């Protein structure tokens, strides 16, 4: 039997949602082993005064196996 734990993180990118997800998972992987997957809980954008997206933000729930 294995036990999984879920943590929630926030990550951002000036490029894309996909890049924000990659950045977040890379950072978590520096200290957490056994990452099994993640899902995007929320997506946000920061815009300039003209409605252009200047930053993508995601909240991720990351699942990993407890050792």
Q: Which features would summarize this protein structure in a list?
A:
67 residues; alpha+beta; three-stranded antiparallel sheet; Dodecin-like; Dodecin-like_sf; Dodecin
Layout of helices and strands, plus pairs?
Elements: E1 4-13, H1 17-29, E2 35-47, E3 53-65
Antiparallel strand pairs: 1-3, 2-3
Cα-atom radius of gyration: 14 Å
Number of strands: 3
The largest sheet is: 3 strands, antiparallel
Q: Judging from the principal axes of the Cα atoms, what is the shape?
A: elongated
Give the termini distance in whole angstroms: 11 Å
Percentage of residues in strands: over 45%
Low-confidence stretches: none
- State the secondary-structure class: alpha+beta
Q: How are the strands of the largest sheet arranged?
A: 1-3-2
Mean pLDDT: 96
> How many helices does DSSP assign?
1
Give the fraction of residues assigned to helices: 10-25%
Protein name: Dodecin family protein
Pfam families: Dodecin
